[in-house]
Amino acid sequence: MLLQNKKAIIYGGGPISGTVAQAFAREGASVFLAGRNQAKLQAIGAVVRAAGGQIESAEVDALDEQAVDAHADAVAARAGGIDITFNLISYGDVQGTPMAEMVLADFERPIVTAVRTMFLTSRAAARHMIRQKSGVILAFGGEGDPLRDYYIGGFQIALHVIEAMRRQLSAELGPHGIRVVTLRTGGVPETIPADMEGRESLMDSLEKMTMLGQTAMLGMWPPSSPSTRPAP
After folding, report:
1. Distance of alpha carbon 121 from alpha carbon 71, whole angstroms
2. Could you tell me if residue 122 is left (phi over 0), alpha (psi between -120 and 50 degrees) or otherwise beta?
3. Which residue stretches of the chain have pLDDT < 70?
4. What is the pLDDT of residue 111?
5. Cβ–Cβ contacts within 10 Å for residue 227, how many?
6. Which of 42, 94, 154, 201 is the most buried (most CB within 10 A)?
7. Structural contact between residues 22 and 220, judged by C-beta atoms closer than 8 angstroms
8. Are 174 and 214 in contact (CB under 8 A)?
9. So what's the pLDDT on residue 179?
10. Could you tell me the pTM of the whole model?
11. Cβ distance 132 to 81 under 8 Å?
12. What is the pLDDT of residue 205?
């Protein structure tokens, strides 16, 4: 198994977090799931444990500096280190509204959230990874062209910020044996509401962003809603 004996912290309780937790556990990692919604965390944990995986959950606000640091320190002390951290919390972005008509709060929320949570969770893990001289920090992000046929608000800008932070973290942490990776997925269809106006044009634009012309998919999460789209 690719992640045998690795310790992974995943932030977030949404569908993507569930898919990643399943995949990490299936590959042998001990998963530490952190999020604000205990019910969602427990649901993910039940699925992972039913498949024989190891997972623990904790109620943590990934925007709270003290909470993030305390949780990472506790995981490292109990598990013997942190090998992987993956921030998958939602940014509270508003899409479908032109910037010229958007209120400031809706525009800046995903940018502020992305910067704050990525910094806090990366820093918390990096402090332990530096001591062990290894580790991987994962995030969704990456640069991309503006979407011409769909209004995405501050979300795309937030992804650009994540990529800029990834580059700086890579430069600083690389000498310590730590890799920082942003995953540019082109979007995950299952997370986009089926009745959303402009969904088909958005899907087309997301597919064009990828080299293979295929978006990412959630795999088997939620377990009752398998994807009908072809695998990448």
Report:
1. 10
2. alpha
3. 142-144, 185-199, 201-203, 205-232
4. 96
5. 16
6. 154
7. yes
8. no
9. 98
10. 0.83
11. yes
12. 64
